[in-house]
Design goal:
Elements lengths: L6 H11 L19 E4 L3 H18 L4 H4 L3 E4 L1 H9 L2 H7 L6 E4 L6 E4 L3 H6 L7
Antiparallel strand pairs: 1-2, 3-4
Length: about 130
């Protein structure tokens, strides 16, 4: 699958975050440093690239849903991105900075869904649900 440009998605995530890091930590603490980087909560190999593609297609088709199509992306400061999201994978999953599982796609039906233990993603991308 061809990689899709993230410019539109990046702008939408930056607007949602108001330019600030979206990392939420234990006891309700939220990092409020300036967001420097766009992080794929659902890693690119197990479906993050597919999720980018589906979001860009939904933007073009006018069927875009912020809740559904931006759930796999988060704005992070450099420290939260590298030291926590990538440096502490178990903690990153517990904090919601990383989502275990993958996106799957059937070519013959055109259906895409999330396969994994995360209830939020399973509800947003159910098998047999609307794309």
């Amino acid at each position: 699958m061809k990689r899709t440009p993230l410019a539109n998605l990046r702008d939408l995530v930056w607007n949602r975050a108001d330019g600030r890091c979206e990392a939420q930590y234990e006891h309700g603490y939220r990092c409020r440093n300036r967001a420097d980087e766009l992080h794929h909560r659902l890693p690119r190999r197990p479906g993050g690239t597919l999720a980018d593609f589906l979001a860009n297609e939904a933007l073009k088709a006018g069927t875009f849903s912020s809740e559904r199509h931006l759930a796999h992306l988060i704005a992070l400061c450099q420290v939260c991105h590298h030291e926590v999201a990538h440096g502490q994978p178990v903690r990153a999953v517990a904090l919601g900075l990383r989502v275990p599982g993958e996106m799957r796609h059937e070519r013959w039906s055109g259906e895409s869904w999330y396969f994994g233990p995360d209830d939020e993603f399973a509800a947003l991308w159910p098998k047999g649900g609307a794309a």
